[in-house]
Specification:
The strands form three sheets. Strands 10-12-11-13-14-19-18-17-15-16 form a ten-stranded mixed beta sheet, sandwiched between helices. The protein has a seven-stranded mixed β-barrel with strand order 1-2-8-6-4-3-9. By secondary structure, the chain is of the alpha/beta class.
């Protein structure tokens, strides 16, 4: 694809001064964000449309991306949310019976810039060794490197950014599954806080008989309780959990009154609501095959992950138990309260696309809601 007529030379400039040269594809406009890497071999479409990547430029470590194109069924939200994408080689053709177009055309349509042709291995090693940094993608022609380095150095980091506010819905709405294959008759009413929620989480809840109302990130605990749901779900999402103060306060007010289940950013918010602290990881976890130990059973789950922050295990008060731990770096991956019906995991049990080792976590939420229904009957 080096001689592709519409590709133009582009640069990636990191805030630490490193420069990589490649070709611009997609919309070819300048883009900036925290540069992260994802080790999944497939699932680029789900990654692009995961709102948790807001504010980030995603580097795919697998060298050949785009070969099965894009389709309308595998999206996780209404549009791509990442600020940009970096790949070694972009496929020109979409070879799959479900494909409705190429990745390049999809990115152009949605205004996302892609940089291809850089040494992605060198970039990943740099990010892994020194930690993730902000960076910018820009056309190479007429570029003033010193000015670009200064611009990159001035980019904001992720710490302190409440990005959940940017991606959350503004008004609550009843979610209906538009995908094929009907869902069972609802048995439970769930309020799902939207910090950047993925469709497949909603589908996973609906498939177990949940009628779901999606609520804004700062929806008050009073309004939740007034709706008399059977459970509260805290979604994934981008950015730093600590600035999402409204959500932390509301979860604190709901604990003990309703069963609570959190995933990813929702896990971090539950950890903060229970009295813990969070911190930024050196390079985050982004991939589809991270091993996690389930401490109560000793079983290993292969999980999909996408997060840059974690709950600090030492900060958890008595009465909060660690349930899951990463086997890659030993960070906290799951917790539960011993006093109230609340638990969460840092990874993505809905894992679209795969793996599906952790689907039992949704069944556990159902069991909690069944108990709650019996007690409040």
């Amino acid at each position: 694809s080096a001689n592709h007529p519409s590709a133009m030379d582009g640069l990636l400039v990191l805030s630490n001064g490193r420069v990589f040269r490649g070709r611009l594809r997609g919309t070819q406009q300048p883009a900036s964000g925290e540069v992260v890497f994802n080790t999944a071999m497939t699932g680029y479409q789900e990654i692009l449309t995961d709102p948790s990547y807001t504010g980030q430029i995603v580097t795919m470590t697998y060298p050949h991306i785009g070969n099965y194109g894009i389709n309308s069924e595998d999206i996780e939200s209404r549009k791509p949310y990442c600020n940009g994408m970096i790949v070694k080689e972009l496929s020109e053709i979409a070879s799959n019976w479900r494909a409705s177009g190429t990745l390049d055309a999809y990115l152009r349509r949605h205004g996302v810039t892609l940089l291809e042709g850089i040494d992605t291995r060198a970039l990943v090693i740099a990010l892994r060794d020194k930690g993730t940094v902000p960076g910018l993608i820009t056309p190479a022609e007429g570029a003033d490197l010193e000015a670009l380095r200064a611009q990159a150095a001035a980019l904001p980091g992720m710490v302190g950014q409440n990005l959940a506010r940017e991606v959350s819905v503004r008004e609550p709405f009843a979610w209906r599954d538009g995908s094929a294959g009907g869902t069972p008759r609802p048995r439970f009413k769930v309020i799902a806080y939207d910090f950047g929620i993925k469709y497949h989480i909603l589908r996973s809840l609906a498939a177990r008989g949940a009628e779901i109302e999606v609520a804004p990130f700062d929806f008050s605990a009073e309004k939740v309780l007034a709706r008399r749901p059977d459970g509260v779900f805290l979604s994934n999402g981008p950015g730093d959990p600590e600035p999402v103060q409204a959500a932390i306060r509301n979860v604190q007010a709901l604990l003990g009154k309703l069963p609570v289940f959190g995933i990813c950013l929702g896990h971090q918010i539950l950890g903060l609501a229970l009295g813990g602290r969070t911190y930024k990881l050196k390079f985050g976890h982004h991939g589809a095959n991270h091993p996690v130990l389930h401490l109560p059973t000793g079983k290993v789950e292969i999980t999909a992950q996408n997060h840059g922050f974690a709950v600090e295990e030492r900060s958890l008060p008595a009465g909060v138990q660690v349930t899951h731990r990463s086997l890659n770096d030993k960070t906290l991956e799951g917790l539960e309260s011993l006093h109230v019906a609340a638990y969460s995991v840092q990874y993505h049990p809905e894992a679209s696309p795969g793996p599906h080792d952790a689907a039992y976590l949704f069944d556990r939420f159902v069991a909690m809601m069944e108990r709650h229904q019996r007690h409040s009957a």
